[in-house]
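User: Hey, quick favor. My workstation is busy. Could you predict this chain's structure for me?
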Amino acid sequence: MHKPINTAVPSYTLKQLVLYFLKLGYSGFGGPVALVGYMHRDLVEQKKWISEEDYKEGLTLAQLAPGPLAAQLGIYLGFVHYRYVGATLVALAFVLPSFFMVVVLGIFYKMYNGISWMQAVFYGVGAAVIGIIAMSSYKLTVKSVGKFNLESFKSKWLLWLFYLITLIITFISQTEVLLLFLTAGIIYMFYKAPPAWSKSNTVQSIFLLAGIGFWNYDSKTLGQLAIFFTKAGAFVFGSGLAIIPFLHGAVTAYHWIDEHQFLDAVAVAMITPGPVVITVGFIGYLVAGFPGACVASVCTFLPCYLFTVIPAPYFKKYAKNTSIKAFVDGITAAVIGALTGAVIIIAINTFTQNHTVTIDIPSVLIAVATILALLYIKKIQEPYIILVAAIIGLILKTLL
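Assistant: No problem, here it is.
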């Protein structure tokens, strides 16, 4: 039986911790970076429930393992003193509020999407979402791959190569490339920090040889949803919108929803508190009602939970392993390249009217304005941008 990560007597009860994450789940806006910041401010600095060391180790594990960053950090912090019970209750408290919110929004969306004012609102919102995810892909590129300068291209040339290859393949194939991500991670690990066991002649030989219908659903679709969202939860490294190239497969590979519904799903996640990845619940609801929402959410967050609680007892020992970090760096560069490719695909499909060569100028202007706002108005949060875009869309569709 494993001991808690921190054996000191906690200065808080499990009930207090769960209530904190419940509040964060229904009132924490701003995406993964903001949520991670709130946890540090509240739990480390103000309440002093969690030590700086435990917080940093949790953040490192959340960055190394696939899955949504904020949710994984919360799960780890629940594990610190209260082990599996704490991790499980924190996960439920953090995710369930936003899950129920997106299900309710999904019900109204399916009921009223045919009404002109609803379509007008999401016309503006969809364009703003493109600007937000474009900005997100840029920030993730700079943070995880490198700055756009000659020095970075030279020193991190292999990461940039993975980035460009996955960007191009994602754009051309319009589908997720899981095997490519894993390959990038393995190659970069052996290039940057080969693990000790890889230097064995036997292992090298093997490696070279290997290579509103609330209940409207059917069992086959639920099975496909389970497989699709399990892959998304198990192979996404990074945070928040990094999951987009995977989820876009719901449009391009399975044709469960169309491009506009996909953008609306991303928008719903941004205007609700809690983890941004909860957009999977909205997509699941559109595809297969409430059962679909449940399957999509459980299958996305369960890998995240397991990837946190299983290595948690051993993480202090392996946290600084350079081979593991190099593996994750390779995968991250490939995933961000795929994200950028997905942004280009979504933008082309949205900005062209009925998939013709005609450009929808108002949509382009809203997206550009969104990017400029995120660049130059430092404290602005995505929900406010979404609200303004919705109003602009309503005005444009009323006047035009």
